[in-house]
Amino acid sequence: MPLDPVFAVPLWAALPVAFVVTQLANVMTTLYLHRALAHRSVTFRSPLEFVARVVLWMVTGIDRREWVAVHRKHHVFSDEPDDPHSPIQRGVWNVLFLNVVYYRREARRDDTLETYAKDIPADRWDRVLFSRSIVGLGLGVGLLWVLFGPAVAAVAGAVHLVGYIGLSGAVNGFGHWFGRRPHDNLATNLRWLAALTAGEGMHNEHHHAPRSPRFGRTWWDIGGKLAGVLARLGLARLHESGRSGRRETVAA
Ligand SMILES: [Zn+2]
Ligand SMILES: [Zn+2]
What we know:
The chain is mostly helical. 60% of the residues lie in helices and 2% in strands. It has helices at 14-38, 46-59, 64-76, 87-90, 92-108, 110-116, 124-130, 133-148, 150-173, 191-196, 203-208, 222-232; strands spanning 42-44, 236-238. One zinc ion is lined by residues 34, 38-39, 71, 75, 206, 210. Residues 74, 78, 175-176, 187, 203, 207 line the site of one zinc ion (ZN).
């Protein structure tokens, strides 16, 4: 006889569950992959960093070295032909819907990781656990199954997958296409997108000062606020280095 879920909830509860999981994935993406690893503007204390790696593995399955390498290349070649996912080069709808394809294509290139993530060697945990995306995502869905049952787990997992991939495509596509450009770069600020992506939508602010832990001085940068809370709790350090120019070097 199958075990009863911990929480007996109706099927519609899959939507708020998916929303929470997607927001968790967005927070891990912006704080750990983006600000801590790709730009070195935040340093997590070791226990918290490991927790971030486990959660990231279970809610996204992303290989941190691949994400960092593709993203750093985006900064080096922003909206030029070698940008892995520029809407100006490839079309905004292509980037919105095919972002994962562009990402995978760039991550698979022989020289991408070697050039752009050489400061992040794969450690034992990467080799044994975190490189196995399917295992991480399977554990994530399994946890939802135990908590809410198979139907809610399946629907929430599917909605989360579409939501997370869609929002990532929106940041890369819309975030270099339309919106406010208070600073002199081609990225844009979209408050509605920032609200849904823990601040990633303040993309013009980010390209203006890529090595700042904050994407502008605004409440819409939720990730920056969370980083400040972690710093006050002694769980992270912020590295304020201000503006570093439009074209970044490879090294973070
Ligand atoms: Zn960008
Ligand atoms: Zn960045």
